[in-house]
Design goal:
alpha/beta, Rossmann fold, four-stranded parallel β-sheet, three-stranded antiparallel β-sheet, 7 strands, globular, Sulfotransferase
């Protein structure tokens, strides 16, 4: 039976369109077929509680495999829509906030902005969540343009996809460290119910990540898919690096606005609108908002409050966790997988 999703407007409208009994039964059959296919995939528990299944060469949580299948077959955005894409722990929340505040800057003042009382997840929901309720959402009722987000690899998106895509990647060393911390929090939360759960060994997690076994991994294949597409269709795919955005957020926000089709005017530049949005969406500001400190604003059921998805957000924090041997190994893999395509990550020490 379909679960009633708890989305705020305008996304709640996707599930409120009149539906016949035939529509309901059709969707139920579609999702039942996806769940049957998913049940046949082996489950890997090494990242528990983030159990994983390998679906079309990428590692995905079993609960999201059916929704990924639904996205592949039924997500049909308009050319004006925008899809935000990241690897887990690569600046997802930050990019959601920046893109939403930029696109809707004429609708809200900074002092009374929805991001002050609403999580970025509610403003820009995951496709994997929207398509996870045994009901194909009717996204045609949403205003144009609409921003969606996902962790899906490019090869898992619909082949007919024609909307604009913004991909944000992060140095794999920082990505791994941040991901390990997230899983630790999930394990601590789960251990209140199951005392047998222990800490995820850092070395074991590192070996898994290096082998390409991680949530939404392999990391390098995920990044490379969007990098190649950004070179093939730069007018449709904007490829951004977390480290470069952190170093110069103002210039990158201008670039983002231009790509989304809503460039800042000279008057807005003079009035400091760009800087105001950067400040509103800064990591420190978002982390301190009450709505991001508890579970009340969460769209999807989760074990952790939104605050758990804000750790440090710093560039180069990996130096505090990775041995020299680990650094050399990840750098070697990155060079082998990406350098031949002209993509690299600049190593940097942690910012104090």
């Amino acid at each position: 039976m379909a679960i009633q999703p708890n989305y705020a407007p305008p996304f709640s409208q996707c599930f409120l369109s009149p539906r016949t009994q035939e529509d309901i039964e059709r969707d139920e059959q579609i999702y039942n077929s996806y769940e049957k296919l998913s049940s046949q995939l082996p489950i890997l528990d090494d990242w528990y509680p983030l159990t994983l299944q390998n679906y079309q060469s990428f590692w995905i949580h079993p609960s999201q495999v059916p929704s990924c299948m639904a996205v592949q077959s039924h997500f049909n955005p308009r050319p004006s829509d925008i899809l935000i894409v990241t690897n887990p722990k690569s600046g997802t929340t930050w990019l959601r906030a920046l893109s939403y505040a930029t696109l809707h800057r004429h609708s809200f003042s900074i002092s009374d902005h929805p991001l002050l009382t609403t999580t970025p997840e509610q403003c820009v929901p995951f496709l994997e969540g929207l398509f996870n309720y045994h009901t194909i959402p009717n996204i045609s009722v949403l205003p144009s343009p609409t921003i969606f987000s996902t962790h899906l690899a490019f090869s898992l998106l619909p082949q007919s996809l024609d909307c604009r895509i913004v991909f944000l990647c992060r140095d794999p060393k920082d990505t791994f460290v941040s991901l390990w911390h997230l899983v630790q929090r999930l394990r601590i939360s789960s251990s209140t119910e199951d005392k047998s759960i222990v800490e995820l060994d850092f070395n074991k997690a590192f070996q898994l990540f290096s082998q390409g076994i991680s949530p939404r991994g392999p990391f390098w294949d995920h990044v490379l898919g969007y990098w190649k597409e950004s070179k093939r269709r730069p007018e449709k795919v904007l490829f951004l690096k977390y480290e470069e955005m952190m170093e110069d957020p103002v210039s990158h926000l201008r670039k983002l606005a231009e790509f989304m089709g809503c460039p800042f005017s000279m008057e807005e530049e003079r009035d400091g609108v760009v800087e105001d949005i950067v400040k509103l969406c800064s990591f420190d500001n978002l982390r301190e908002l009450e709505v991001n400190k508890d579970n009340k604003g969460s769209v999807e059921s989760r074990r952790l409050p939104p605050s758990s998805f804000f750790r440090k957000g710093k560039v180069g924090d990996w130096v505090n966790y990775l041995s020299m041997e680990m650094v050399e190994k990840l750098d070697a893999i990155t060079k082998e997988k990406l350098h031949g395509f002209g993509l690299s990550f600049e190593s940097s020490a942690a910012v104090p």
